[in-house]
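Quarterly update, task 2.4: adenosine-5'-diphosphate-bound model.
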Amino acid sequence: MINQSLIVEETTEFVREKLSGETTGHDWFHTERVFRLANYIAEKEGADIFIVQLASLLHDIADWKFHDGNEEKGPEIAATWLNNSGLDKSRINLIRDIIREVTFKGNKVENKISTIEGKVVQDADRLDAIGAIGIARAFAYGGYRGNEIYNPALKPKNHNSFEEYKKNKGTTINHFYEKLLLLKDMMNTQTGREIAEKRHKFMEIFLENFYKEWNLDL
Ligand code: ADP
Ligand code: NI
């Protein structure tokens, strides 16, 4: 028998050490928030808590954006870690698939998730991309990419493939229309939808005020 809480504890330390101090919005605190939210949703939705805990902890261990677009890096590092921790192959594969599937690939790209555990982790990850924290992360990431905050001449785009989405160099305000405002309707679970509703409203108010200030509507 494996000691589940020990694996979760050791994985927490492994990820914390790897992601601490990261400044593009994929820092350890993002993972910690996703972990906490995923636990909450998993309980409400009746998903396997252990799988959800490990997958949420490991979901951003090596994002494609920071590994020359290599989408396999994260799932691979996670699988190696879990293998060394003594987890059985079938659960390792399950977690590896979840990590592979949760990433957002562009607003016109189909994104299928087969397990309830994957759905929960994806909802938690997406919820951290919207609302007040989502806004903060978007501007942090946009700055890191060297993108403008806003440029009235640049219109939002649809991305028909993951390749197109990866290369995108638009403004951060456009990112709201290309991704953030769409997430509410892409939630997998009822619990996720309810939380998304509140965070979505806050982003709408933010944008409304942003344009008001921009246009000197005092
Ligand atoms: P996921 O966690 O689904 O992989 P991403 O890694 O794409 O999501 O995004 C991580 C964070 O960076 C999110 O808060 C997201 O909104 C933000 N982000 C991603 N792409 C952009 C962009 N082009 N401009 C601004 N923020 C972005
Ligand atoms: Ni994430």
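Highlight for this quarter: The chain has a mean pLDDT of 90.
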